[in-house]
Design a protein that fits this description.
single chain; 4-stranded mixed beta sheet; globular; alpha+beta; 4 strands; Glutaredoxin
Length: 139
């Protein structure tokens, strides 16, 4: 099984569920705080591979929800600068297995990549909280 470095927002319900699926599949998970990591544009960029810029973002982040930031209007350089300044904007989780870096947690893609013993049809990326329930700090 794999050792997965898992960059998360501590306290995020979906990140907890994602880690549980990885552990149930026999993977070792090393959780790191995405928000306190010292990100640099080049390092962060490597996680996104060939995904379009709009798919790099956490659409539950307050700045996106209120329309202050519109990912579909950003180029790569500006998107990375915003994320380095405000890690809440980064789509979660960021995953590292060896030299392979990925973003997001689509159970089917994770299963194809490193294997899961249990798949769920649940959305494990969107924040289950609403703005009215801001206790998770959203984003």
């Amino acid at each position: 099984m794999a050792t997965v470095v898992f960059y998360e927002k501590p306290g995020c319900i979906n990140n907890r569920r994602q880690k549980e699926l990885l552990v149930a599949a026999g993977h070792q998970v090393i959780a790191k705080n995405l928000l306190s990591e010292a990100w640099h544009a080049d390092r962060l960029r490597a996680f996104f591979g060939s995904l379009p810029v709009r798919n790099w973002f956490n659409y539950s982040a307050p700045a996106i929800k209120i329309g202050q930031i519109r990912p579909e209007k950003l180029d790569e350089q500006r998107a990375l600068a915003l994320m380095v300044d405000n890690p809440l904007l980064i789509r979660r989780p960021l995953l590292q297995v060896g030299e392979d870096l990925r973003v997001g947690f689509d159970p089917q893609l994770v299963d194809e990549w490193i294997g899961l013993t249990e798949r769920t049809g649940a959305d494990l990326e969107s924040c289950p909280k609403t703005l009215a329930q801001a206790s998770c700090g959203h984003g």
